[in-house]
Automatic annotation (TrEMBL):
Organism for this UniProt entry: Pseudorhodobacter turbinis
Membrane topology term: Peripheral membrane protein
InterPro entries, per the entry: AAA+_ATPase (IPR003593), ABC_transporter-like_ATP-bd (IPR003439), ABC_transporter-like_CS (IPR017871), P-loop_NTPase (IPR027417), Siderophore_ABC-ATPase (IPR051535)
Protein name: ABC transporter ATP-binding protein
Domain of life from the UniProt record: Bacteria
Gene Ontology BP, a term: iron ion transport
């Protein structure tokens, strides 16, 4: 149901303000098509703000966000929603809304104004429910589910939208470790098997290192470092970004780095 993506999402000299406070400054990013890119950084570094700007939910003070070399502000709402899906933090639904009704809302961008429900819509919803293991819960109201189950329902809605680009803001929030692994494996399969472009905000450095193709470390609204995990998950980069000392090891199976925090630094410059 989800077409492979070759479009490039990028920002050129983007700045974002909240009131009189500048959150993001002079941001130039190119998101590689068909790859999983993870945004990392301490609280307040601009991760979610950047994701919202990419999703056209956060106005930019200056600069441009482009999709396939076209400014996203020039696209219609439906055209953009057919190409880019977003799972935001703290999404809310009306009381009593069933899982399947929420997931069906993901089909809105694909439906004509006066068109009926189609077989393609049914197939997309069924696939989204299957991918998130929600078939047995599809008729339950969201407000009787656990936090993790509700999170999976929102993820299913995003998958039913069938966009080639997914933006995920802390998608593993509320999920226990087993469902975190299931979700990250699902995201990795979507990227590998369908060439989807995924941009995710994560807090878990080791999770990011294991699953991402490309990491972007942010600090104070600017890119501090970017590249593969081996270049980003290092004691030096993590000390500068978070002000903590870590030990970094190599996973004997994957060869990827993983880190163990040791202590906070009185001043990140100590690194």
């Amino acid at each position: 149901m989800i077409r492979p993506n070759t479009d490039e999402l990028q920002t050129k000299a983007v700045a974002v303000d909240y009131g009189a406070t500048r959150i993001v400054e002079d941001l130039d990013l190119k998101i590689a098509p068909g790859r999983l890119t993870v945004l990392l950084g301490p609280n307040g570094s601009g991760k979610s703000t950047i994701l919202r700007a990419l999703a056209r939910l956060q106005p930019v003070a200056s600069g441009t966000v482009l999709l396939d070399a076209q400014a996203i502000t020039r696209m219609s709402t439906k055209e953009f929603a057919r190409r880019v899906g977003l799972l935001a933090q703290g999404a809310m639904a009306p009381d009593g809304l069933r899982v399947i009704d929420l997931v069906r809302q993901g089909r809105y961008p694909h439906r004509p104004l006066f068109g009926g429900w189609t077989a393609d819509d049914d197939a997309a919803v069924a696939e989204a429910l299957a991918l998130t293991s929600l078939q047995k819960l599809q008729d339950r109201p969201l407000d009787v589910l656990s936090g993790g189950q509700r999170q999976r329902a929102w993820i299913a809605m995003t998958l039913a939208q069938a966009t080639p680009i997914l933006l995920l803001d802390e998608p593993t929030t509320y999920l226990d470790i087993a469902h975190q692994v299931d979700l990250m494996n699902l995201i990795r399969r979507l990227v590998d098997a369908r060439a989807m472009t995924v941009v995710a905000v994560l807090h878990d450095l080791n999770q990011a290192a294991r699953y991402a193709d490309h990491l972007i470390m942010l600090k104070s609204g600017k890119v501090m470092a970017k590249g593969p995990a081996k270049d980003i998950i290092t004691p030096e980069v993590i000390a500068r970004a978070f002000g903590i000392e870590v030990k970094v090891f190599q996973d004997p199976d994957s060869g990827l780095p993983f880190c163990l925090p040791q202590r906070t630094l009185s001043d990140p410059a100590d690194a």
